[in-house]
Predict the structure.
Amino acid sequence: MKKSKFIVTALLLLPILFITSCSKDNTLFDELQGTWSVRDFYTSVTATKDFSFLDMNSPQGWSGEVMENNVAVQNCANRFYDNYTPYIYINKDIIVMLSTKRLVYKNAQYDVLFNSDEAIENGKFQAEFNFTYGSSTINLKINIQAPLKEVKMGNNLTIYGSKEGLAGVPLSELKFMSPTEVRGKLTLNNILDSFSGTWLVNTDNISLNFKTINAQVQYIQNYKFLLTESDLILSTESVYPQSGIFTKIPNENITNVIHHAKYSR
């Protein structure tokens, strides 16, 4: 009789455990469901000694001035982006493509000459362009440079940079469809592709198992994840160096290298 009673009790408990497990998964899905688009890729590190470095990807942009027909251009971001095709974003009307040596001015493109190596390697960009836009003659002078950042031993740094800094394939969009199904978009070698697959959470770790739609390549990627009121942050620890954003910082100067991708919806 005792054995039969145990079996009955176990059978009664199974649905309860199943409901509890589903409830937990559904609660997390309720918080995650929807489309998350990437806002930032950045890396956190800890300094092991005092040093200084060129903060190429500073969110405050490079310092200096941009003159158009001898008038200072306003609202300049002067942001450097070290993608596979690095470029300097002055503002929405002026973009300088460094590797292809092209100037984008109000959606028109011009082949131009300048020293792209100086910008990429030394964080300095100085050039003068003369071109015709519509019926107007434009003289554009750019003289900007990356800020030099001083770091003390033990400082925690946040370094913004290329999305390739995040270990694995960088995901530009995540869409949680159900407690197990995930879809989204990724960019690999400047090629945009969609994917679909499954997701699984264990404590503060999330595992994504997916296949790209066009390339038909399978990936399994694991992250630490943090869900706040407004953001979803995926993080991976890394062995230095893994990305070009660290070319200005010697290996022995930093430790605790962790890549992050921040998403919002």
Q: What stands out?
A: The longest helix spans residues 2-32. Confidence is low (pLDDT under 50) at residues 1-24. The first strand starts at residue 34 and ends at 47. Helices lie at 2-32, 116-122.
